[in-house]
Protein backbone atom coordinates (compact mmCIF):
# COMPACT_ATOMS: atom_id res chain seq x y z
CA UNK A 1 0.00 0.00 0.00
CA UNK A 2 1.29 3.45 -0.87
CA UNK A 3 2.37 5.68 1.96
CA UNK A 4 1.60 9.36 2.26
CA UNK A 5 4.26 12.01 2.34
CA UNK A 6 4.54 11.83 6.12
CA UNK A 7 5.08 8.07 6.05
CA UNK A 8 1.61 6.92 7.29
CA UNK A 9 -0.98 4.88 5.47
CA UNK A 10 -3.85 7.12 4.23
CA UNK A 11 -6.57 4.93 5.75
CA UNK A 12 -4.74 4.77 9.06
CA UNK A 13 -4.22 8.51 9.06
CA UNK A 14 -7.94 9.08 8.40
CA UNK A 15 -9.02 6.63 11.12
CA UNK A 16 -7.18 8.69 13.73
CA UNK A 17 -9.07 11.86 12.88
CA UNK A 18 -12.65 10.63 12.51
CA UNK A 19 -15.10 9.65 15.25
CA UNK A 20 -15.59 5.98 16.02
CA UNK A 21 -19.35 6.44 16.44
CA UNK A 22 -21.64 5.60 13.52
CA UNK A 23 -24.74 7.58 14.50
CA UNK A 24 -26.59 6.55 11.38
CA UNK A 25 -26.32 2.89 12.35
CA UNK A 26 -27.27 3.68 15.95
CA UNK A 27 -30.42 5.58 14.98
CA UNK A 28 -31.37 2.88 12.48
CA UNK A 29 -31.09 0.19 15.15
CA UNK A 30 -32.94 2.35 17.66
CA UNK A 31 -35.80 2.95 15.24
CA UNK A 32 -36.15 -0.77 14.57
CA UNK A 33 -36.05 -1.60 18.30
CA UNK A 34 -38.60 1.10 19.21
CA UNK A 35 -41.02 0.04 16.47
CA UNK A 36 -40.80 -3.63 17.37
CA UNK A 37 -41.19 -2.82 21.08
CA UNK A 38 -44.35 -0.85 20.39
CA UNK A 39 -45.82 -3.66 18.30
CA UNK A 40 -45.04 -6.34 20.88
CA UNK A 41 -46.30 -4.25 23.81
CA UNK A 42 -49.61 -3.56 22.09
CA UNK A 43 -49.90 -7.23 21.17
CA UNK A 44 -49.24 -8.19 24.77
CA UNK A 45 -51.90 -5.84 26.09
CA UNK A 46 -54.38 -7.15 23.57
CA UNK A 47 -53.74 -10.76 24.55
CA UNK A 48 -53.81 -9.87 28.23
CA UNK A 49 -57.14 -8.07 28.14
CA UNK A 50 -58.66 -10.85 26.06
CA UNK A 51 -57.72 -13.32 28.81
CA UNK A 52 -59.21 -11.21 31.62
CA UNK A 53 -62.86 -11.71 32.55
CA UNK A 54 -64.96 -9.34 34.70
CA UNK A 55 -66.77 -12.33 36.19
CA UNK A 56 -65.50 -14.11 39.27
CA UNK A 57 -63.68 -17.44 38.84
CA UNK A 58 -63.46 -16.92 35.08
CA UNK A 59 -60.51 -16.01 32.90
CA UNK A 60 -56.89 -15.76 33.98
CA UNK A 61 -56.11 -15.04 37.63
CA UNK A 62 -54.44 -11.83 38.77
CA UNK A 63 -51.26 -13.67 39.78
CA UNK A 64 -51.03 -15.47 36.44
CA UNK A 65 -51.67 -12.21 34.61
CA UNK A 66 -48.84 -10.52 36.51
CA UNK A 67 -46.38 -13.32 35.78
CA UNK A 68 -47.40 -13.39 32.12
CA UNK A 69 -46.96 -9.62 31.87
CA UNK A 70 -43.47 -9.78 33.34
CA UNK A 71 -42.45 -12.62 31.00
CA UNK A 72 -43.85 -10.78 27.99
CA UNK A 73 -42.03 -7.56 28.87
CA UNK A 74 -38.77 -9.47 29.23
CA UNK A 75 -39.37 -11.21 25.90
CA UNK A 76 -40.16 -7.87 24.25
CA UNK A 77 -36.99 -6.28 25.56
CA UNK A 78 -34.78 -9.18 24.53
CA UNK A 79 -36.19 -9.51 21.01
CA UNK A 80 -36.53 -5.80 20.21
CA UNK A 81 -33.21 -4.78 21.77
CA UNK A 82 -31.43 -7.71 20.12
CA UNK A 83 -32.77 -6.69 16.72
CA UNK A 84 -31.80 -3.05 17.24
CA UNK A 85 -28.32 -3.97 18.42
CA UNK A 86 -27.75 -6.32 15.51
CA UNK A 87 -28.80 -3.69 12.98
CA UNK A 88 -26.59 -1.07 14.64
CA UNK A 89 -23.61 -3.42 14.54
CA UNK A 90 -24.24 -4.66 11.01
CA UNK A 91 -24.70 -1.18 9.50
CA UNK A 92 -21.85 0.60 11.25
CA UNK A 93 -18.80 1.75 9.34
CA UNK A 94 -16.06 -0.83 9.00
CA UNK A 95 -12.96 -0.01 11.03
CA UNK A 96 -9.67 -0.90 9.36
CA UNK A 97 -6.30 -1.34 11.08
CA UNK A 98 -8.05 -1.66 14.47
CA UNK A 99 -7.24 -4.03 17.29
CA UNK A 100 -9.88 -6.69 17.88
CA UNK A 101 -10.44 -5.54 21.46
CA UNK A 102 -11.20 -2.01 20.28
CA UNK A 103 -13.58 -3.31 17.63
CA UNK A 104 -15.36 -5.41 20.26
CA UNK A 105 -15.71 -2.40 22.55
CA UNK A 106 -17.03 -0.16 19.78
CA UNK A 107 -19.55 -2.77 18.66
CA UNK A 108 -20.75 -3.18 22.25
CA UNK A 109 -21.02 0.59 22.64
CA UNK A 110 -23.03 0.88 19.42
CA UNK A 111 -25.50 -1.73 20.60
CA UNK A 112 -25.80 -0.06 24.00
CA UNK A 113 -26.34 3.38 22.45
CA UNK A 114 -28.99 1.98 20.11
CA UNK A 115 -30.77 0.50 23.14
CA UNK A 116 -30.53 3.82 24.99
CA UNK A 117 -32.03 5.82 22.13
CA UNK A 118 -34.79 3.24 21.55
CA UNK A 119 -35.68 3.18 25.26
CA UNK A 120 -35.88 6.97 25.48
CA UNK A 121 -37.97 7.22 22.31
CA UNK A 122 -40.33 4.45 23.42
CA UNK A 123 -40.71 5.94 26.89
CA UNK A 124 -41.43 9.38 25.45
CA UNK A 125 -43.95 8.26 22.85
CA UNK A 126 -45.88 5.47 24.51
CA UNK A 127 -45.39 5.93 28.27
CA UNK A 128 -48.56 8.02 28.58
CA UNK A 129 -50.78 5.68 26.60
CA UNK A 130 -49.40 2.52 28.21
CA UNK A 131 -49.76 3.92 31.72
CA UNK A 132 -53.36 4.87 30.89
CA UNK A 133 -54.08 1.33 29.70
CA UNK A 134 -52.43 -0.20 32.76
CA UNK A 135 -54.20 2.09 35.23
CA UNK A 136 -57.51 1.41 33.52
CA UNK A 137 -56.96 -2.33 33.73
CA UNK A 138 -55.88 -2.14 37.38
CA UNK A 139 -58.89 -0.02 38.29
CA UNK A 140 -61.22 -2.41 36.50
CA UNK A 141 -59.68 -5.38 38.30
CA UNK A 142 -59.90 -3.65 41.66
CA UNK A 143 -63.54 -2.78 41.07
CA UNK A 144 -64.35 -6.38 40.15
CA UNK A 145 -62.38 -7.80 43.09
CA UNK A 146 -63.85 -5.43 45.63
CA UNK A 147 -67.33 -4.87 44.27
CA UNK A 148 -69.05 -5.17 47.62
CA UNK A 149 -66.53 -2.91 49.31
CA UNK A 150 -66.87 -0.34 46.55
CA UNK A 151 -70.63 -0.37 46.83
CA UNK A 152 -70.47 0.09 50.59
CA UNK A 153 -67.90 2.86 50.22
CA UNK A 154 -70.14 4.60 47.70
CA UNK A 155 -73.11 4.40 50.03
CA UNK A 156 -71.05 5.71 52.93
CA UNK A 157 -69.66 8.47 50.75
CA UNK A 158 -73.14 9.50 49.67
CA UNK A 159 -74.31 9.59 53.25
CA UNK A 160 -71.26 11.60 54.26
CA UNK A 161 -71.86 14.02 51.41
CA UNK A 162 -75.43 14.50 52.50
CA UNK A 163 -74.22 15.10 56.04
CA UNK A 164 -71.48 17.50 54.96
CA UNK A 165 -74.04 19.55 53.06
CA UNK A 166 -75.84 20.08 56.38
CA UNK A 167 -73.09 19.53 58.95
CA UNK A 168 -75.19 20.96 61.77
CA UNK A 169 -78.28 18.93 60.89
CA UNK A 170 -77.63 16.51 63.77
CA UNK A 171 -77.71 19.31 66.30
CA UNK A 172 -80.74 20.92 64.72
CA UNK A 173 -82.58 17.60 64.86
CA UNK A 174 -81.79 17.34 68.56
CA UNK A 175 -83.66 20.62 69.16
CA UNK A 176 -86.96 19.04 68.16
CA UNK A 177 -86.61 15.69 69.86
CA UNK A 178 -89.54 14.56 72.00
CA UNK A 179 -90.34 11.56 74.11
CA UNK A 180 -93.17 10.97 71.68
CA UNK A 181 -91.81 11.81 68.24
CA UNK A 182 -94.30 13.41 65.90
CA UNK A 183 -95.27 11.46 62.80
CA UNK A 184 -93.19 12.66 59.84
CA UNK A 185 -92.51 11.35 56.37
CA UNK A 186 -90.23 8.39 55.74
CA UNK A 187 -87.68 10.58 53.96
CA UNK A 188 -87.39 12.84 56.98
CA UNK A 189 -86.94 9.86 59.31
CA UNK A 190 -84.34 8.30 57.02
CA UNK A 191 -82.43 11.58 56.92
CA UNK A 192 -82.46 11.85 60.72
CA UNK A 193 -81.29 8.25 61.19
CA UNK A 194 -78.58 8.70 58.57
CA UNK A 195 -77.22 11.79 60.30
CA UNK A 196 -77.15 10.03 63.66
CA UNK A 197 -75.42 6.93 62.23
CA UNK A 198 -72.85 8.89 60.24
CA UNK A 199 -71.94 11.14 63.17
CA UNK A 200 -71.62 8.18 65.55
CA UNK A 201 -69.47 6.19 63.09
CA UNK A 202 -67.28 9.21 62.33
CA UNK A 203 -66.56 9.95 66.00
CA UNK A 204 -65.78 7.05 68.33
CA UNK A 205 -68.10 4.51 66.73
CA UNK A 206 -70.27 4.29 69.82
CA UNK A 207 -73.95 5.17 69.69
CA UNK A 208 -74.83 7.68 72.40
CA UNK A 209 -77.50 6.62 74.91
CA UNK A 210 -79.84 9.48 74.02
CA UNK A 211 -79.45 8.74 70.30
CA UNK A 212 -80.16 5.06 70.93
CA UNK A 213 -83.31 5.88 72.87
CA UNK A 214 -84.53 8.33 70.25
CA UNK A 215 -83.94 5.88 67.41
CA UNK A 216 -85.81 3.20 69.30
CA UNK A 217 -88.75 5.58 69.72
CA UNK A 218 -88.78 6.21 65.96
CA UNK A 219 -88.69 2.48 65.28
CA UNK A 220 -91.44 1.72 67.82
CA UNK A 221 -93.62 4.45 66.29
CA UNK A 222 -93.48 2.79 62.86
CA UNK A 223 -93.64 -0.84 63.99
CA UNK A 224 -95.53 -2.96 66.48
CA UNK A 225 -92.43 -3.38 68.65
CA UNK A 226 -92.15 -2.32 72.24
CA UNK A 227 -89.52 0.19 73.32
CA UNK A 228 -87.23 -2.59 74.57
CA UNK A 229 -87.58 -4.60 71.37
CA UNK A 230 -87.00 -1.46 69.30
CA UNK A 231 -83.81 -0.73 71.24
CA UNK A 232 -82.56 -4.26 70.55
CA UNK A 233 -83.30 -3.80 66.86
CA UNK A 234 -81.41 -0.51 66.87
CA UNK A 235 -78.42 -2.22 68.49
CA UNK A 236 -78.48 -5.06 65.95
CA UNK A 237 -78.79 -2.78 62.93
CA UNK A 238 -76.10 -0.41 64.19
CA UNK A 239 -73.77 -3.34 64.87
CA UNK A 240 -74.29 -4.63 61.31
CA UNK A 241 -73.63 -1.13 59.99
CA UNK A 242 -70.38 -0.93 61.98
CA UNK A 243 -69.29 -4.31 60.62
CA UNK A 244 -70.12 -3.32 57.05
CA UNK A 245 -68.10 -0.10 57.35
CA UNK A 246 -65.18 -1.96 58.97
CA UNK A 247 -65.25 -4.59 56.22
CA UNK A 248 -65.28 -1.87 53.58
CA UNK A 249 -62.28 -0.15 55.17
CA UNK A 250 -60.41 -3.45 55.46
CA UNK A 251 -61.15 -4.33 51.83
CA UNK A 252 -59.94 -0.90 50.72
CA UNK A 253 -56.74 -1.27 52.76
CA UNK A 254 -56.11 -4.74 51.36
CA UNK A 255 -56.72 -3.52 47.82
CA UNK A 256 -54.32 -0.61 48.35
CA UNK A 257 -51.70 -2.94 49.86
CA UNK A 258 -52.06 -5.40 46.99
CA UNK A 259 -51.79 -2.61 44.42
CA UNK A 260 -48.64 -1.28 46.11
CA UNK A 261 -47.03 -4.74 46.13
CA UNK A 262 -47.95 -5.34 42.49
CA UNK A 263 -46.57 -1.93 41.49
CA UNK A 264 -43.30 -2.55 43.37
CA UNK A 265 -42.87 -6.04 41.92
CA UNK A 266 -43.71 -4.88 38.40
CA UNK A 267 -41.24 -2.00 38.62
CA UNK A 268 -38.51 -4.31 39.88
CA UNK A 269 -39.01 -6.81 37.07
CA UNK A 270 -39.22 -4.02 34.50
CA UNK A 271 -35.80 -2.91 35.74
CA UNK A 272 -34.50 -6.46 35.25
CA UNK A 273 -36.08 -6.63 31.79
CA UNK A 274 -34.44 -3.35 30.77
CA UNK A 275 -31.06 -4.61 31.94
CA UNK A 276 -31.59 -7.76 29.90
CA UNK A 277 -32.48 -5.62 26.89
CA UNK A 278 -29.27 -3.59 27.26
CA UNK A 279 -27.20 -6.77 27.51
CA UNK A 280 -28.75 -8.44 24.48
CA UNK A 281 -28.51 -5.24 22.43
CA UNK A 282 -24.78 -5.02 23.14
CA UNK A 283 -24.28 -8.72 22.49
CA UNK A 284 -26.21 -8.65 19.22
CA UNK A 285 -24.23 -5.60 18.09
CA UNK A 286 -20.96 -7.50 18.44
CA UNK A 287 -22.39 -10.36 16.40
CA UNK A 288 -23.65 -7.96 13.74
CA UNK A 289 -20.29 -6.19 13.66
CA UNK A 290 -18.46 -9.44 13.10
CA UNK A 291 -20.83 -10.32 10.27
CA UNK A 292 -20.19 -6.86 8.84
CA UNK A 293 -16.43 -7.35 8.96
CA UNK A 294 -16.73 -10.81 7.38
CA UNK A 295 -18.37 -9.42 4.25
CA UNK A 296 -16.35 -10.24 1.11
CA UNK A 297 -16.52 -7.57 -1.55
CA UNK A 298 -17.13 -8.81 -5.08
CA UNK A 299 -14.47 -7.75 -7.56
CA UNK A 300 -15.55 -6.52 -10.99
CA UNK A 301 -13.68 -5.86 -14.19
CA UNK A 302 -14.46 -2.17 -14.00
CA UNK A 303 -12.02 -0.33 -11.79
CA UNK A 304 -13.82 1.70 -9.19
CA UNK A 305 -12.06 3.88 -6.67
CA UNK A 306 -13.54 2.82 -3.35
CA UNK A 307 -13.72 5.29 -0.51
CA UNK A 308 -11.24 4.65 2.27
CA UNK A 309 -12.38 2.61 5.19
CA UNK A 310 -11.65 3.30 8.78
Detailed description of the structure:
By secondary structure, the chain is mainly alpha-helical. The chain folds into 2 domains: 18-146 and 263-293, no CATH class; 150-250, no CATH class. The protein is 76% helix and 0% strand. It has 9 helices and no strands. The radius of gyration is 36 Å and the shape is rod-shaped. The two termini are 15 Å apart.
In short:
This protein is mostly helical.
* Uncertain regions spanning at least 5 consecutive residues: 144-163
State the domain count. 2
Q: Taking all residues together, what is the mean pLDDT?
A: 75
State the end-to-end distance.
15 Å
Strand content: under 5%
Helix content, binned percent? over 70%
Helix/strand-derived category reads mainly alpha
Number of distinct helices: 9
Gyration radius (Cα, Å) is 36 Å
Element pattern in H and E: HHHHHHHHH
Oligomer: single chain
Shape: rod-shaped
Got a strand count? 0
Amino acid sequence: MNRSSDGFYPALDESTTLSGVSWGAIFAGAAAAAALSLILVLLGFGLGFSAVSPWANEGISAKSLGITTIVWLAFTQIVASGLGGYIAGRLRVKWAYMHSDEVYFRDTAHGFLAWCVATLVTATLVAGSVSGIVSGGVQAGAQVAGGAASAMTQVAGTAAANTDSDQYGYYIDSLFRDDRPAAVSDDAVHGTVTRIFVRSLANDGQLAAEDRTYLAQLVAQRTNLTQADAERRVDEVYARTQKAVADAKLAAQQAADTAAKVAAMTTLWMFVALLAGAFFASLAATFGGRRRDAVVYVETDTYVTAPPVR
